Amino acid sequence: MKELIRHGEPISVIRNVVEEEKIDLLLMPAHEESRLEHFLFGRINNAIIRRLPCSVLLVKEKAGT
Which run of H or of E encompasses 26? Predict the structure, then answer.
């Protein structure tokens, strides 16, 4: 596993890393969110998923964690 830290607009940065590292599957956490969280973050997640040139797997956390 490799840890990368980049600065910039999230969608562009994630897409650039996916292309540079030749990533074919991206794992992202999926969680239930309140209306406020959906308004603030849901749009970003949807935009990331739609614009990536790779498959995306959303993974739910275990109940109670």
Answer: strand 25-30
Phi/psi class of residue 55: alpha, beta or left (left: φ > 0; alpha: ψ in -120 to 50)? Answer: beta
26, 54 in Cβ contact below 8 A? Answer: yes
Alpha helices by DSSP H, 1-65: 10-20, 35-37, 43-51
R_g of the chain, CA atoms, integer Å = 13
Better-predicted residue by pLDDT, 35 or 1: 1
Residue 56 CA to residue 4 CA, distance in Å, equals 18
CA-nearest of 62, 50, 8 to 26 is: 50
Q: How confident is the model at residue 28 (pLDDT cuts 50, 70, 90)?
A: confident
Contact 58, 28 (CB under 8 A): yes
